[in-house]
Specification:
Blueprint lengths: L12 E6 L12 H10 L3 E6 L4 E5 L5 H16 L5 E5 H9 L13 E5 L10 H4 L7 E4 L3 E5 L2
Antiparallel strand pairs: 1-3, 1-4, 2-3, 5-7, 6-7
Helix pairs in contact: 1-2
């Protein structure tokens, strides 16, 4: 199995992160349309967060990578939008939140960023940056996300 794939899970809750939508005027997608698309793809209990492209939903035992591909295809076919999608199980998302080593320093959550990646090897290029002192900013790496604190 390639490094970017995870085994099928018994978890039924997932988080989908649709990248690069609703930034300025480019790639505008209403969250209502996104919820409809997710429901058309067979997902249940679909909820979106603000206008972010972040979706929480229920699905059967399916590999997150397979769900992501179907959502990407659906965005292209139904909404004429090309966007990368990363899907995590609820458990994996909780692990990313728990693994944030900058959480205590991040006194204002609007200035804390998390960049998700489905291939931990890609973070190798950031390791030299993470070892530098960026005070008052800070960068930390986890297995599935890079965390950036911008006070």
């Amino acid at each position: 199995m390639p490094k970017t794939q995870t085994p099928a899970t018994s978890a039924s809750r997932y988080v989908a992160l649709v990248r690069g939508i609703n930034l300025g005027r480019a790639k505008r997608v209403s969250m209502g349309d996104l919820r409809e698309l997710m429901a058309e793809l067979g997902h249940r209990e679909v909820r979106t967060l603000l206008n972010s492209g972040n979706v929480v939903f229920s699905a059967g035992k399916t590999r997150p990578e397979a769900i992501a591909r179907r959502v990407e295809d659906g965005l292209l076919e139904r909404l004429s939008l090309s966007a990368r999608v990363q899907v995590l199980t609820a458990e994996a998302f909780r692990a990313v939140v728990a693994g944030n080593r900058l959480a205590e320093a991040a006194t204002n959550p609007t200035r804390l960023l998390a960049a998700f990646c489905d291939d931990a090897d890609r973070f190798a290029t950031l390791r030299p940056l993470a070892s530098q002192d960026w005070a008052p900013e800070a960068l930390a790496l986890g297995p599935m996300a890079a965390y950036l604190w911008c006070p």
